[in-house]
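Thread: quick sanity check before group meeting

JM: Hey all, I'm pulling together slides for Thursday and realized we never actually wrote out the predicted structure for the chain we discussed last week. Dropping the sequence here so it's in one place. If anyone has concerns about the input, flag it before I start.
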Amino acid sequence: MFRGAMVAIVTPFKNNKIDEDALRDLIEIQIANGTDAIVPCGTTGESATLTHEEHDRVIEITIEAVKKRVPVIAGTGSNNTAEALRLTKHAYNAGADGALIVCPYYNRPTQEGLYQHFKIIAESVPLPIIPYNIPGRTGVNLTPEMVAKLSRISNIVGIKEASGSIKQMNDIINLCDKDFSILSGDDIFTLPLLSMGGAGVISVISNVAPADMAGLVDAFSATDLAKARALHQKMSPLIDALFLEVNPIPVKAALVMMGKINYEYRLPLCAMSNQNYARLKKVMTDYGLIK
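JM (edit): ok, ran it. Output follows.
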């Protein structure tokens, strides 16, 4: 259902408040450069440090700014099922096209607990839902077998897979129907996943180089594998640099270098070390994003 290069968009702050103007500007840049969907309030959007009111507002701003030009897949996950359900209901009522729901973190639920979590949300809200598997952050892995079981719920339409395992991605593809969207949660796995039958990526690098990630996906779809490989190789050093520190610290620093946002995070996230900032700046300069 959802395919292509989708951006896990940052949440810009100004004086410790959401910078609504900057967010709207970032959305326009994404759409102008071929991004296929906007995903607010994910990990890259610092959702864990937003108040409920701010979370709701970021989703509302995104929907208003996008104006149905591309899908908006709202991040609505929580480690609390009731809270995730409330956030998902809000996204539905606000007009989102889908919901990205991270596996409940910290609690480390069983596979059955994960199933019940996603099932009750899917049955309660008539919105296309994409579970988000990122065990490095959540402490629990949504297994391929459980993904396949969830895929049989009609409005669970895909998976954002960020386990870091090509084998796990391949197993999910083999276990699920072809219309189930397997999306990479790691930029570097976009091309390998597409080659196995995946549907696209929810991307961090698209925040700073949206045309290149969109171009990679479009080139693969057009069977221009040489162009897709060239863009993959071009982006690889920048992808590495955007993870010199925990996401979204480097990508927000990169946007600061580009003059797009203020240099603000929510604690416990903080500014990059001077050494890593300098390393990122060199990669950004070599890439041609800044002078």
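AS: nice. The chain has one domain: 4-224. Strands lie at 4-8, 13-14, 17-18, 37-39, 73-75, 98-102, 129-133, 158-161, 181-184, 200-203.
JM: adding both to the slides.
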